[in-house]
Fold this sequence. Notes:
This protein has strands at 3-7, 10-13, 18-25, 33-39, 46-51, 57-59, 67-72, 77-82, 91-98, 110-111, 115-120. It is built from no helices and eleven strands.
Amino acid sequence: QVQLVESGGGSVQAGGSLRLSCAVSARAFTNYAMAWFRQAPGKEREFVALINQVGGSYYADSVQGRFTISRDNAKNMVYLQMNSLKPEDTAVYYCASGPAAATSADRYTNWGQGTQVTVSS
């Protein structure tokens, strides 16, 4: 069974940075594509970034150039470095794992509990 635990959320002013971490308990971490999604109050969960099994990444247009996803296969960790944060980035951020990289949430089989990110203007 795969378990994911996010950390690193918090409150920051616009223009600031945060680094989210996702610890993955899995027997074969390198078999999984990983992604970050977010959900703001009253909105649908949306794709943020993904990284596939060989390190290829892809980003939502809204975060391209500001966010960077990475993975450390030796530590079973996934990270989301978020720079130049905007108030519209405020949301609960979720880490997800699945057999293949995709931007659709229903392609991911395991989810963390989420971590809150709040960006004030």
